[in-house]
Amino acid sequence: MISGHYISVLEALLIFGVQNPHAELTRIKKDGYIIGSQRVSMAKIMARINRYVHVDVPDNLPIREIAMTEYWIQT
Fold first, then answer.
1. Residue 10: its H or E element
2. Which of 58, 44, 53 is nearest to 7 (CA)?
3. Given pLDDT bands bounded at 50, 70 and 90, which one contains residue 56?
4. Where in the sequence is the domain holding 59, given as residue range(s)?
5. How far separated are the first and last CA of the chain, in Å rounded?
6. In a domain? residue 64
7. Under 8 Å CB-to-CB from 71, ≥6 apart: which residues?
8. Distances in Å between the alpha carbon of 24 and those of 4, 6, 34, 38, 49?
9. For residue 1, is it within any domain?
10. Which end of the chain has fewer surrounding CB within 10 Å, N or C?
11. For residue range 15-53, what is the model confidence (pLDDT) as tens digits?
12. Are the CB atoms for 5 and 72 separated by under 8 Å?
């Protein structure tokens, strides 16, 4: 995140093994960093995840319609 990369709760869990991503975001904020966020489709996040981990979603899951939040550290 410090390098300007975006991360979602799903990525934090699956790729980095962070058990409570929201608590870590709070800790980062307390350290003085400004956290930005925006809503994006789950399809965008799944594309990023599948670069590192193979994740299959059910065919009937509307991932283009599901909105998730991604976070980054503002510089």
1. helix 9-14
2. 44
3. very high
4. 7-74
5. 11
6. yes
7. 1, 6, 7, 8, 25, 35, 36, 37
8. 17, 14, 13, 18, 19
9. no
10. C
11. 999 999 999 999 999 999 999 999 999 999 999 999 999
12. yes
Indicate whether 62 belongs to any domain.
Answer: yes
Give a yes or no: residue 59 inside a domain: yes
| Tokens found for residue 12 | 């934090």
What whole-number distance in Å separates Cα of residue 42 and Cα of residue 51? 15
- Number of domains into which the chain is organized: 1
DSSP lists the bridge partners of residue 35 as 73
Q: Which two tokens stand for residue 27?
A: 């800790």
Residue pair 70/2 in contact (Cβ under 8 Å)? The answer is no
